[in-house]
Amino acid sequence: MSERTAVIHNKRLAAYRKESDQLKISAEYDALIAGSAPDYSAWQAKVEEIKERYPLPTE
Question: Strand, coil or helix: what is 58?
Fold first, then answer.
């Protein structure tokens, strides 16, 4: 992995932890309480947003 790719990977990881992880946990908790399948749509949208913000290089 190049240094540039490692930097982007670390930025993505930090963004996932700060912005998207709580959305997934919340969806899972709400589904558990409701006895239904989790709705991951908000989490998936946030993950896509992060990937667009920090695209991996095409080296």
Answer: coil
| Dist. CA 55–CA 49, nearest whole Å | 10
Look up residue 17 and give its two tokens. 């932890």
Distance separating alpha carbons of residues 48 and 7, to the nearest angstrom:
18
Residue 35 backbone zone (phi > 0: left; psi -120 to 50: alpha; other: beta) = left
Residue 11 Cα distances to 3, 32, 40, 54, angstroms = 12, 31, 22, 7
User: DSSP code of 38?
Assistant: -
pLDDT at 17 exceeding the cut of 70? yes
pTM: 0.87
